Amino acid sequence: TKRLTLGDIAAKRDAGEPIVMVTAYDFPSAQIVEAAGVDLVLVGDSAAMVVLGYDSTVPVTTDEMLMLTAAVRRGLTRPLLIGDLPFGSYEASDEIAIATAQRFIKEAGVDLVKIERGGTTVERARALVNAGIPVVGHVGLTPQTATALGGYRAQGRTAEAAQAVIDDALALQAAGVSMLVVEAVPSEVTAALMPLVDIPVIGIGAGADADGQVLVFHDLLGIHAGGAAKFVKRYADLRTAAIDGVRSYADEVRDGAYPAPEHSYRMPEGEAARLKG
Ligand code: KIV
Ligand code: NA
Asked: For residue 45, which atom of ligand 1 is closest to its CA?
């Protein structure tokens, strides 16, 4: 199987064929999403919350993200791999952004990097593109700066706020990004944006008009406890299946049903007698 190219993704968009993106965070989840036939895999900094147990995406470090991202790379062949640059690893200067993105490429084999927001991130995006690094922009709800946005809530709910999201998207497109993620905005904002852009737009909580959709692996498979955002649809209940499996194992250890003879090694003929002497 050959790796998809950005040209293949653009061709899907141009043909009106929906683009499927999902997150993954380790070798088995990468193999699972590859087997399911997705187009794009993001090692999201959502890893901070769903894999590492932090309360937000802010604390996760570049080294933590690189370890997870390199494991995903080892499990993927065909989909394009996007590395999410964590909070604090790209904002301060173009030089810092380029150095961090180069680590994701050299140490974790990503095809593209994703950075959040408009504002100063537009300049960082331009610098990365000029350095030959393909970039995914991310507008609307940007979790790394959610505090400044008033929390984890939909963005662009007034005409002015919607225009600000659209302006960020257009500025990123002008800076040369290859793709946009639009998170948690009313469908009308995405509908207004689509005719203005000619790069693939991947939505998450952004309605049905985007060129593709992305969801977090743990959300769509029902792996973690607790509630999820309005836009999450659960396609499986792996947490319940996993608890049932581990509980059955615990029960069988406690009642002696496991291990059975078929799970046990035996000595060759005669050796057991010699052992007893
Ligand atoms: O970190 C993440 O998983 C993301 C997607 C939800 C777009 O940024
Ligand atoms: Na992210």
From this structure: 1
Q: Atom 2 (ligand 1): residue with closest C-alpha?
A: 44
* 62 touches 100 (CB < 8 A): yes
Residue 184 has, within 13 A of its CA and on its CB side, a CA count of: 14
Per-domain boundaries in the chain: 6-236, 241-276
Per-residue pLDDT of the chain (277 residues; tens, 9 = 90+): 899 999 999 999 999 999 999 999 999 999 999 999 999 999 999 999 999 999 999 999 999 999 999 999 999 999 999 999 999 999 999 999 999 999 999 999 999 999 999 999 999 999 999 999 999 999 999 999 999 999 999 999 999 999 999 999 999 999 999 999 999 999 999 999 999 999 999 999 999 999 999 999 999 999 988 788 999 999 999 999 999 999 999 999 999 999 999 999 999 989 998 998 6
Q: Give the orientation angle of helix 94-108 with respect to helix 120-130, to 10 degrees.
A: 50
Find the helix or strand (DSSP H, E) in which 42 lies.
strand 40-43
Q: How far apart are CA 159 and CA 156, in angstroms?
A: 7
What one-character-per-residue DSSP string does 149-204 give?
A: GTSS-----SHHHHHHHHHHHHHHHHTT-SEEEEES--HHHHHHHGGG--S-EEEE
**Separation of alpha carbons 139 and 162, rounded Å:** 11
Architecture of 6-236 per CATH? Alpha-Beta Barrel (3.20)
Residues with CB under 6 A from ligand 1: 23, 42, 44-46, 84, 181, 183, 204, 214, 216
For residue 277, report the distance from its CA to the centre of ligand 2, in Å: 65
**Which of 114, 120, 158, 116 shows the shortest CA–CA distance to 140?**
116
The closest alpha carbon to 104, from 152, 72, 77, 79, belongs to: 72
Q: What is the pTM of this model?
A: 0.96
